[in-house]
Amino acid sequence: MKLSKTLITTAILGFSLASFHSTAWADTPKQQFQQGFEATTRGDYQTAFKLWLPLAEQGNATSQFWVGVMYFEGQGVKQDDFEAVKWYRKAAEQGDANAQFNLGWMYDKGRGIKQDDFEAVKWSRKAAEQGNAKAQFYLGNMYADGRGVKQDDFEAVKWYRKAADQGEAAAQSSLGLMYTNGQGVKQNDFEAVKWFSKAAEQGNADAQANLGSVYRAGRGVRQDYAEAVKWFKKAAENGSADGQLKLGLSYLLGQGIQKDRTLAKEWLGKACDNREQDGCEFYGKLNRGEL
């Protein structure tokens, strides 16, 4: 049973209005920060930048973090990874967990700074130890892959679980995969289904594809091809190459859904476009009339 692993790609923390608090403050610096927040709600990032930059230069860690985000996103200022790293570092050195995670991510990707797995782990660990769920998931991935740290499935599970318990969907999906494979934890299909389900309900495409796979195989749940197709379809529509492949094969074989070679070809083609090699092979065979 082939399953999908959730990877860190664009997990860097960016603009989210939920990250701000709209409480009115009495003192001037906090009022100034609040005015910047209000500007972002209007899409006026230039004004927000002008309000936050002086605060950042005065040493306000929260403002330093958001100035870094604005440089990274190119919102309100010209995009500049080097400036983003500069401001993330200032905030990170003051203990801002979001900035610590973002700085670790920049080291991981080599954006605005030389790529360095060890520095990536160092800063992500600081954020993870403060309870930052994305950093905990990221640190779990680094332990699972042995990047910047000695490979250790038990440590990977430890950090995945911390993030998963906070509702981090990617970590829930990865924890489910560890239970499926018995890596760093005793193999348990029921626990795998539990965590895949939590992540899938949040819209995690890899978890949706994996949940479809366990329903198709009947591992940890009663075998149900129709339920498998339901989750393959969700995953496929969310851009999962594995979900697209398995949905295409379901249409081809008529498993849990009516046979439809046209739709099979469409989804296998999408999987191929998504660099899923098996999708390319099946798509080619369908085109050549070999299936």
From TrEMBL:
SUPFAM superfamilies (UniProt xref): HCP-like (SSF81901)
EC id: 3.5.2.6
Single GO term (MF): beta-lactamase activity
InterPro entries noted in UniProt: Sel1-like, Sel1_AlgK, TPR-like_helical_dom_sf
Keyword Hydrolase: yes
N-terminal signal peptide: 1-26
Gene3D superfamilies reported for this sequence: Tetratricopeptide repeat domain
Top EC class for this record: hydrolase
Keywords from the UniProt entry: Hydrolase, Signal
Coiled coil: none
PANTHER family, sorted: ERAD-ASSOCIATED E3 UBIQUITIN-PROTEIN LIGASE COMPONENT HRD3, SEL-1-LIKE PROTEIN
Name this protein carries in UniProt: TPR repeat protein
Encoding gene (name): hcpC_2
